[in-house]
């Protein structure tokens, strides 16, 4: 579904991504771990060109999306993204937050969009919150709404950038449960997280990034069970 070839990103003189190669198959859950500042967010943001790659290629569903003339907005509709901070529209209800993009971008009519939104609210366990405003929700609930909003566009892949890092500990589980449900339902996902238990349980593959390079890559058993690289071992010994 996604092929990344020799992806580089520089910010001025700073060489942040130094040649990332990756293939993601449909239905796969790829979890990216690594120390802060290693380039995980930059990598994720390059996948939908929220950051413009400096060089390299990204092929998404057979299309070279790093081509300058490529219509990236069309592609972004197929790539849902969930951030650490939820970015819900504060003056809109939960339902309207979810409805907006499908109606504006996908030209769905209100009845259709509403039915879909309610179904998604059920899926994330918040069907009773459709009329609430974001300020009336807990962090975990907001993040579940952010996930429902991304899903409303019927993306082909979901990108998560530390979706639970801003949450109080007691709310982490409910968000991870929703993500796990998505994974079990066959969604293709790329997830940056520090939740190692989740990575191990839900990830099909783990990438360990350090200083802009993928230095270890394998199944959870390989990466967590018998990491080959000293830097992976050091990182895991600190976080596990
Ligand atoms: P991670 O998500 O792994 O913590 P990031 O991808 O956010 O890492 O950042 C990697 C490095 O790139 C950091 O040193 C960060 O300061 C730098 N960086 C990220 N975005 C920018 C930017 N827009 N301009 C300059 N440097 C940036
Ligand atoms: Mg980050």
From TrEMBL:
> A GO molecular function for this record?
ABC-type amino acid transporter activity
- UniProt name for this protein: Amino acid ABC transporter ATP-binding protein
Pfam families for this protein: ABC_tran
Q: Which SMART domains match?
A: AAA (SM00382)
**Per the UniProt entry, what species is this protein from, by scientific name?**
Paenibacillus lentus
Q: Which family does it belong to?
A: Belongs to the ABC transporter superfamily.
The protein's predominant localisation is membrane
PANTHER family linked to this entry: AMINO ACID IMPORT ATP-BINDING PROTEIN, GLUTAMATE_ASPARTATE IMPORT ATP-BINDING PROTEIN GLTL
């Amino acid at each position: 579904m996604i092929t990344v070839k020799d992806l580089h990103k520089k910010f001025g003189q700073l060489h942040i991504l130094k040649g990332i190669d990756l293939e993601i198959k449909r239905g796969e859950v790829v979890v990216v771990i690594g120390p802060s500042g290693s380039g995980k967010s930059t990598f994720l943001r390059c996948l939908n060109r929220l950051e413009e790659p400096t060089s390299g290629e990204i092929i998404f569903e057979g299309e070279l999306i790093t081509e300058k003339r490529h219509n990236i907005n069309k592609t972004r509709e197929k790539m849902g993204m969930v951030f650490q901070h939820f970015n819900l529209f504060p003056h809109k209800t939960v339902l309207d937050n979810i409805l907006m993009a499908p109606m504006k971008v996908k030209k769905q009519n209100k009845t259709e969009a509403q039915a879909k939104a309610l179904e998604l609210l059920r899926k994330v366990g918040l069907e009773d919150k459709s009329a609430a405003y974001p300020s009336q929700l807990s962090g975990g609930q907001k993040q579940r709404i952010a996930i429902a909003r991304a899903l409303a566009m019927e993306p082909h892949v979901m990108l998560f950038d530390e979706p639970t890092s801003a949450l109080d500990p007691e709310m982490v589980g409910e968000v991870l449960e929703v993500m796990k449900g998505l994974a079990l339902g066959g969604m293709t996902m790329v997830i940056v997280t520090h939740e190692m238990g989740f990575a191990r349980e839900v990830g099909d593959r783990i990438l360990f990034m350090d200083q802009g390079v993928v230095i270890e890559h394998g199944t959870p058993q390989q990466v967590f069970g018998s990491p080959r690289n000293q830097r992976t071992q050091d990182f895991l010994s600190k976080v596990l």
